[in-house]
Structures are given as structure tokens and as C-alpha cells.
Write a structure and sequence with these properties.
This protein is of the alpha+beta class. The chain folds into two domains: 185 residues, Alpha-Beta Complex (tt1808, chain A); 84 residues. Helix content is 45%, strand content 15%. The strands form three sheets. Strands 1-3-5-6-7-8 form a six-stranded mixed beta sheet. A two-stranded parallel sheet has the order 2-4. A two-stranded antiparallel sheet has the order 9-10. A hairpin with a 4-residue loop joins strand 6 and strand 7.
Length: 283
């Protein structure tokens, strides 16, 4: 019987550490591309709970046996720059221990080549991905603007002949190097962008919404002003109409008064005639 010197959780941490001591990236270009790919894929699958995406996370495909642990055999591991696992829930992990993940291997792996990646290391990674079930593997060399890809056929990863404009069967995204840099595009054609660009787009949209709000307020003010001017104009027209009606009433009264005076005068003249009084002789 093997005596346990440490609690099981500590033993596991020692056997399968969460860090390999290597940096996430060797340069800003590599880091930018890793974050852009990871962020774009997170956005693409944000509504799917069964897609796990990670960057620089150690992947342990096989659990060591007790005899291998006793002989201090090191477990197999790799930390893809970005990996995608269909069929596993989102969530935080210190590492990806495949035997704890329904033995589902990552199906897609991305690597961004840097000067610190010797050819032997990249060959080791390729062999690892081929052996442990990766279905799509993409390798990009920023210095040469060279994109390579491999697709699983049976037990082997076969190189894709034409990569520029290639559409990933599993991810649905399109990859291109025609603009002198690695560009990835969502199925709807939108390009993957870095976080700064996302913030800039958000700020532009926010500013445009604020401008649209201000335009709406100004338009509403213009409508209110126009309505107010129409009301004033209507009031002026009403006053003019009222004044016309009053003027007509005054004219009608004056005409009525004249007619009444004329009628009274005529009656008076007729009465004088009846009395045989000559109005001219009175003057």
C-alpha cells in the first residue's frame, strides 16, 4: 500500500499543477491575437452553455496510474494558446483534466507562433493534438503572416491545402491573412476585434445614441415651436376675425341708427303735413 503523505487535493495539485511556469505570450502581437481569438469565440458562443473556451490553460488528457505516480512519471500536458471544447459547461478551471470532463477532448486548438517556440516544441504540440483527439488545429506565424491548418481524418490530422478564406467546420468562422495579419470573421461576416476596438465601438454607439436623443429633443422642440407658432397665428387670425365682426356690428348699428333717424324724420314730416305746417316757413 502506498502511504499518502498529503491530502488527496494537495497530491493532485502537485501531480497536475495549474501552471507550467511559462508566460502566456512572448510578445504583444501574440498576446493581442490570443485575446482577440478568445474574446471573439466567447462572443460567438455566449448563448451556448455547452461550449468551454480557454486560453493558455493546461490540458491533461490522461490520468496517471498509481504505479506511474509512484515512479514520479510526469503527466502528459499541453497549454494551447486557445482551445474550444464542445460538450462541456462554461466555468472556471485551474486546468482541464480530461477524465473529469466526461473524457471529452478539446476539438479545436489555436497556436500563435513566437520566436520563443522552437520547431521541436511545435512538432511535439502537433503530435500531442493528433494523438489526443483535436479535430481542427490552426497555427499562425505573425512574422511570416503564414496560417496553417489541419483537419482530422481518422486518426490523423491532415493539412488543409488552402487556408486563406477557410471556414472552420466546427466553429463556422472564416480565417484570412489577405490583409497582412490574421483576421477571423463570425458566420455573419463581422470581424473579430480586440477589446479596445469593442470599447471604441461601444463608445461610438453610445455617443450616436446620445446624439440621436439630442436630435429627437431638438426635433420635438421644433415641433413644439411650430405648434406654438401655429397657435399664435390662429389666435391672431381669431382676433382679426373678431375685430372684423365687431366692425361689422358697429357698421350695422350705425346703419340701423341712421335708418331709425330717417324713419323718425319722415314720420315727423308726414305729421307736419297733416297739420298743414310748412317746415320751410318755420325756418
Amino acid at each position: 500500500m502506498v502511504q499518502q503523505l498529503f491530502p488527496p487535493s494537495i497530491q493532485e495539485d502537485l501531480i497536475y499543477p495549474d501552471s507550467d511556469g511559462k508566460p502566456l505570450a512572448d510578445n504583444t502581437t501574440q498576446l493581442r491575437l490570443i485575446f482577440t481569438i478568445k474574446g471573439g469565440l466567447d462572443a460567438l458562443f455566449k448563448d451556448r452553455d455547452d461550449v468551454f473556451i480557454a486560453a493558455d490553460l493546461l490540458w491533461y488528457p490522461v490520468k496517471l496510474t498509481k504505479s506511474e505516480i509512484i515512479t514520479q512519471k510526469k503527466p502528459k500536458k499541453q497549454a494551447p494558446d486557445v482551445m474550444v471544447v464542445f460538450g462541456r459547461p462554461k466555468g472556471d478551471r485551474g486546468s482541464y483534466m480530461q477524465w473529469k470532463e466526461d473524457n471529452i477532448a478539446p476539438q479545436v486548438a489555436f497556436e500563435i507562433l513566437s520566436p520563443g517556440n522552437p520547431k521541436a516544441d511545435m512538432e511535439t504540440k502537433f503530435d500531442f493534438y493528433q494523438e489526443h483527439g483535436v479535430e481542427e488545429y490552426y497555427l499562425y506565424n505573425p512574422k511570416k503572416n503564414l496560417l496553417q491548418g489541419w483537419l482530422r481524418q481518422g486518426k490523423k490530422l491532415k493539412e488543409i491545402a488552402q487556408m486563406d478564406g477557410w471556414r472552420s467546420p466546427l466553429l463556422g468562422i472564416r480565417l484570412s491573412t489577405s490583409e497582412g495579419d490574421l483576421a477571423l470573421f463570425h458566420p455573419n461576416g463581422e470581424r473579430f476585434v480586440d477589446y479596445v476596438t469593442v470599447v471604441e465601438q461601444r463608445d461610438r454607439e453610445r455617443l450616436e445614441k446620445e446624439r440621436e436623443k439630442q436630435r429627437a429633443i431638438l426635433a420635438e422642440n421644433d415641433r413644439d415651436r411650430e405648434q406654438f407658432e401655429k397657435e399664435l397665428e390662429k389666435q391672431r387670425a381669431d382676433r382679426e376675425q373678431l375685430e372684423k365682426e365687431r366692425e361689422k356690428q358697429r357698421a350695422d348699428r350705425e346703419q340701423l341708427e341712421k335708418e331709425q333717424i330717417q324713419s323718425e324724420l319722415q314720420k315727423l314730416q308726414e305729421k307736419l303735413k297733416q297739420l298743414n305746417i310748412d317746415l320751410d316757413s318755420l325756418t
